[in-house]
Write a structure and sequence with these properties.
binds iron/sulfur cluster; 658 residues; 18% strand; six-stranded mixed sheet; 3 domains
């Protein structure tokens, strides 16, 4: 799944059916356990909502009424409709809408890209996640590989900023515990409370969007006290001035007020992190999802450079390690594709506002935009358009699939080949089919191959079988210059990469053109490190929608999150006359969500929380957190700003209809 850990799995199959899934051997980071989400994957595999056959819509959009059709009919109808659309409106009227799915290198941006590039379809800006972090890490460090998780056990100070390893990076947790036993000082920066007081030493409950002033306040303390590592800065860094000047405007009292944390906690953070060695920073994706996201990520990952925390095992930072891998050559050559780019975060507006040409054909795969894309009401209105031809290709009948004209059933990772490079652990894995699908699900590779052949295209990749495609992709993967052993990957072995260890500024270095750390990368725009406040007096509560331990994005929402809750601070609840489990209305100018309140100390005052990716059936009015999230985008990469949602919550009188 889309998870940094990239476990290897042992799957037990009896009479052609999966019986159990557990941790496989061969991947040291799996460490004998996997998450319950995947341990119970058989629930998705054999769920009533699993799509088994291609289907054609026979009821109104959204009704979920379909009839079974053959694959030949489905491929033929899509081909005919897309041809007609391209002829009447131009091929840019067709839009592929996808994200990572299970993040396999075969399942996304391979044959699908070849198909849509040859069609001349619009391109999709994949902005829903990880864009500011990726662009900033590229600009500052050239996506240098990060501190391996096992090294966290040796750190004397650990900072976890905007991440919840308990939900989405569980194999880091044992190392955090080991470090704590060894006397490490553990700091968490997060508006939500995911750790107990025994697990962490300092928790800064930063206000959503205010990570930037907090980071700048820390930097000002270190600068004023002469604690910056001037030797490291001189030898390895450039463009520090804009960052240090911006920090100058954030005395600790001002930073504390903006971030909503105690001045003394900022002082403690500054002191503990500065004096520790090794000190390591785990930077997550929570801090990027707001107007200041890109700027905040840059200020945060500048900290180890400013204090010279590199050069020792366990010292430095970890963000995504996806940049540790390269393709030596394109495994599926894509012809030049320079059509317009459409920002996926703004799908609602794209489908409902004038556009030239309008989107008339939509192909959704590896994604469930009704549940995951901001401005849910508008996304649904767009999908309801009668003149929009929509294909949804997925494993289960998602909220989005209910609006499709044609539904295509997709295989799971238990049924197809794929290549998986980790973005947390240092491993590459091969995925092999272990069962034959029930019904007629097909892999992404096979479906886009069939679509390409239906267009009459002769490109060789449209004629590869899955295993051939697997080998072509695996052959192209390189980690630190090392090629993969494709046969071993095909046999199920996990290939460890960077076997000599990763020590930043000892075994790995910035991959920027001049090998320096660029402390003010160009992606920060004309006003780097300038803070913008998001406030709305009518809607005083900040809504966050983080990852959780029940779903991977929206996957498993079909059964694993049956009832939607909004978490509130006890003071915010009391001020509104709301008690635990009361039915409430969460609302703003964009929409409303009716669900139950949970008042159990999960979030700080002024913040409410709903899970990322919940399905419509989990709430009482069929709307979820994205109905309240604006589709405005970050200046860094046009990224989504989910955590800029501001809302109000009120009790909902019992008996009021939904
Ligand atoms: S989702 Fe993450 S923790 Fe769970 S099995 Fe997959 S890689 Fe492991």
């Amino acid at each position: 799944m889309d998870c940094p850990d990239t476990c290897s799995l042992d799957v037990s199959v009896v009479n052609g059916r999966v019986q159990s899934i557990g941790a496989g051997s061969g991947n040291p980071d799996t460490d004998g356990f996997i998450c319950t989400k995947v341990r119970r994957f058989t629930r998705r595999q054999y769920h009533d909502d699993r799509l088994l056959y291609p289907e054609r819509r026979i009821g109104p959009k959204g009704s979920g009424r379909y009839e079974r059709i053959s694959w030949d009919d489905a491929i033929g109808e899509i081909t005919t409709r897309f041809r007609a659309t391209a002829e009447e409106w131009g091929p840019e009227a067709i839009l592929p809408y996808h994200y990572g799915g299970s993040n396999g290198k075969l399942s996304d941006e391979r044959l699908d890209h070849l198909y849509f590039a040859k069609l001349g379809a619009s391109r999709l800006g994949k902005t829903i996640c990880a864009v500011p972090t990726t662009l900033v890490a590229q600009g500052m460090y050239g996506r240098m590989p990060g501190v391996p998780f096992a090294e966290y056990a040796n750190a004397q100070c650990i900072v976890i900023w905007g991440a919840n390893p308990k939900a989405s990076n569980i194999h880091l947790v044992p190392y955090l515990k080991a470090a704590k036993r060894n006397g490490a000082f553990v700091i968490v920066v997060d508006p939500a409370r995911n750790f107990s007081e025994q697990e962490v030493d300092l928790h800064l409950e930063v206000l959503p969007g205010a990570d930037l002033p907090l980071a700048l306040g820390l930097i000002k303390i270190w600068r004023d006290r002469g604690m910056l590592d001037s030797v490291f800065l001189k030898e390895h860094c450039v463009d520090a001035d804009a960052l240090l000047n911006a920090a100058n405007a954030w005395p600790v009292d001002r930073a504390a007020e903006a971030a909503g944390v105690a001045r003394s906690d900022i002082e403690t953070f500054a002191e503990q992190y500065a004096k520790a060695s090794p000190a390591v920073l785990r930077c997550g994706w929570g801090l990027e999802r707001n107007v200041n996201g890109g700027q905040a990520v840059a200020a945060v990952i500048a900290m180890p450079a400013l204090l010279g925390k590199f050069g020792v095992p366990g010292g430095g930072y970890t963000m995504s390690n996806g940049g540790a891998y390269r393709f030596t050559h394109p495994p599926v050559p894509i012809p030049e594709w320079r059509t317009r780019e459409i920002n996926m975060t703004q799908l609602g507006a794209v489908l409902t506002e004038p556009l030239d040409p309008p989107v008339k054909g939509l192909f959704v795969y590896n994604a469930n935009p009704v549940a995951t894309t901001p401005d849910q009401n508008r996304v649904i209105r767009g999908l309801e358009r009668d003149d929009l031809f929509t294909v949804v290709f997925d494993q289960v009948r998602t909220d989005t699939a209910r609006y499709a004209d044609i539904v295509l059933p997709a295989t799971t990772f238990l049924e197809h080949w794929d290549v998986r490079v980790a973005y947390g652990a240092y491993v590459v894995g091969g995925t092999q089919p272990v069962v034959t699908p029930e019904g007629e699900p097909q892999s992404n590779h096979d479906v886009f191959a069939a679509l390409g052949r239906a267009m009459g295209w002769e490109d060789e990749p449209f004629h590869w079988d899955q295993e051939t495609a697997f080998r072509k992709v695996a052959e192209a993967v390189s980690a630190n210059g090392d090629a993969m052993d494709v046969d071993r990957l095909a046999d199920g072995a996990v290939q460890r990469t960077y076997t000599g260890g990763v020590v930043q500024f000892e075994t790995v270095f910035p991959r920027t053109p001049d090998k320096k750390v660029h402390l003010t990368p160009d992606v920060l725009g004309a006003e780097p490190y300038q803070y913008r406040e998001v406030g709305n007096s009518a809607f005083p509560l900040a809504l966050i929608s983080p990852a959780n331990d029940k779903m991977v994005s929206s996957s498993f929402g079909e059964y694993n999150y049956p009832e939607l809750f909004v978490d509130m601070h006890e003071d915010d609840a009391a001020a509104r006359g709301i008690a635990d489990r009361d039915t409430v209305r969460v609302f703003n100018d964009l929409g409303e969500v009716v669900c139950r309140a949970r008042v159990r100390g999960k979030v700080r005052r002024g913040v409410v929380l709903m899970p990322k990716g919940a399905w419509r059936k989990s709430s009482m009015n069929g709307m979820t957190s994205t109905a309240l999230c604006p589709a405005t985008v970050n200046e860094v990469g046009g990224a989504a700003r989910f955590n800029d949602a501001r809302v109000e919550v009120e009790p909902r009188p019992s008996g009021e209809g939904t």
